[in-house]
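Pipeline run #58 for the internal structure catalog. This entry was flagged by the ingest filter as a single-chain record with no existing model, so it goes straight to prediction. Upstream metadata was stripped on purpose; only the residue string is passed forward. Reviewer on rotation: M.T. Logging verbosity set to normal.
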Amino acid sequence: MTTNHDDTDDEASTDGNGETQTDAGEEAPSEAEHDRTRTPGGGAAPEPEPIEPAAPEEFGLVQAFWGDGKGKTTAAMGMGFRAAGHGYRVHMLQFMKGGADSVEGVRGEYNAIAAVPGFTYENAGHYGWHGLLDGSADDEHEAKAAAAFDRAEALVAGAADADLTEPLALDGDPEAGVHMLILDELLYAADRGLVAPDDVVRLAESKPEDLELVLTGSHAEPAYLDGVADLITNVRKVAHPFDDGQRARRGTEY
């Protein structure tokens, strides 16, 4: 028996102009639109969601940001905020930033970090800048940097003892484990001889497999990280207002 085929029953058919139509008379999705539906977000515009504890699926790299341009710490903190927004536990330990005459006693990033669940920070720097005649003692800078490195080792050890494939308490002690650890200005401390570069390498190589470790600082290339860091970014200065006498500005530099 022969069965008649009725084109009106097809899910999509072609109109007289050659355009593909759906059974409702609407134009079928284009190839590009169809491809978008296969992306992680399904082609939908992102919407904010409540931050709940979660675990990353692909963390575990070592990243380093160095160079004479502005934006190394900013890039690291930007990733920290992004990770915290997904519910991952993030902690930032700052070397060499204990305050200076050029900035006020409050920093915008600290206020913002305090407002985001799962993102914490601590400052281990000495007032002023090492090697400058600003009234600060270089031996105090050295002592602060050594203490900060001890703290970094404790944080990495805590991460090694934790299960980083599972969600972590957003208000938990960072020594109980974090998914992302930012060691801000550690490379600058190594560049200044306050921390041994070999110790930085050892720390990076000792981290647990699933910990994302982010290192920043240094105007000089940290060649000792070649083959150690998975991502190395040179933040190069093309122009900087500081060269024209512009001081640090509230809301951009602090």
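catalog note: Helices lie at 31-36, 72-85, 108-114, 138-161, 186-191, 197-206.
catalog note: The radius of gyration is 25 Å.
status: ready for reviewer M.T.
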